[in-house]
Design brief:
Pfam families: adh_short (PF00106). InterPro entries: NAD(P)-bd_dom_sf (IPR036291), SDR_fam (IPR002347). The protein has a seven-stranded parallel beta sheet, with helices on both faces. It has one domain: Rossmann fold, CATH 3.40.50. It has seven helices and seven strands, in the order βαββαβαβαβαβαα. Helix 3 packs parallel to helix 4. Helices cover 43% and strands 14% of the residues.
Length: 235
């Protein structure tokens, strides 16, 4: 499978208005992307000529299909959009759990189904899915569970998309300094740092990116007792 370089490519970044998504838009532009479709749930503007903003609700198949009808030149897809709705699995509002899975798991799947034919038609390209260190650790209710499911989804998509020469990258990261975790008082990586590591991994032909030291340590601990992972997540 050919390694995908960003220079000259057309990219879509879901959730590109702020946080890590905005940093990914900046990073791919800095590396020479020809065009970037940057999406958000509501309309917004970006004055850079290479950026095309678009409304997208990843919970809606119709919304995803509408984007795919416009963005037929896309070669790299970053599935960055996600939500964190803290609530216990046993006693929290069940609708918060289903919404979390709908955005964090089925959202990337809707995007993959809509854009796989486009990527194939444009030479294969790449699909990059954002996971979390909580893909492996217990915690954060439905959010952690959804990221574990998203990790599995990415691994299965990698097998299915190999036949069309699409590079599938799964990204795991700990706390990133964004609005999503602004209330959590723990060390955080900057969005720019994580975005650079993600694109470095993509351009190196990686199938998995461990975006920070916390994630590297968590991955290394997977061979140990599951209790160690649960305790780590509680700290």
């Amino acid at each position: 499978m050919a390694v995908v370089a960003v220079a000259g490519k057309v990219v879509v970044v879901t959730g590109g208005r702020r946080g890590l998504g905005a940093a990914l838009v900046d990073e791919v532009l800095a590396r020479g992307a020809r065009k970037v479709y940057s999406t958000a749930r509501s309309a917004y503007t970006d004055d850079r000529p290479e950026v095309v903003t678009a409304e997208l609700e990843v919970r809606s198949a119709a919304s995803v299909a509408a984007l795919a009808e416009v963005a037929t030149d896309v070669e790299i897809v970053f599935n960055n959009a996600g939500i964190l709705l803290p609530a216990p699995l046993l006693t929290g509002d069940f609708e918060r759990a289903t919404e979390t899975f709908d955005v964090n798991v089925f959202g990337p799947l809707r995007m993959a189904r809509a854009f796989a034919p486009i990527l194939a038609a444009n030479g294969g390209g790449a699909l990059v899915n954002m996971h979390s260190v909580l893909s492996w650790l217990a915690g954060s209710g439905a959010y952690g569970a959804s990221k574990a499911a998203a990790w599995s989804l990415t691994n299965s998509l990698r097998l299915e998309l190999a036949r069309q020469n699409t590079q599938v990258v799964g990204v795991h990261a700990g706390f990133i300094d964004t609005d999503m975790v602004s209330a959590i008082e723990l060390p955080k990586a900057t969005p720019a740092e994580v975005a650079a590591r993600i694109v470095d991994g993509l351009e190196a032909g990686a199938t998995e990116v461990l975006a920070d030291d916390v994630t590297v340590a968590a991955k290394a601990a997977l061979s140990g007792p599951v209790e160690r992972l649960t305790i780590s997540a509680a700290r």
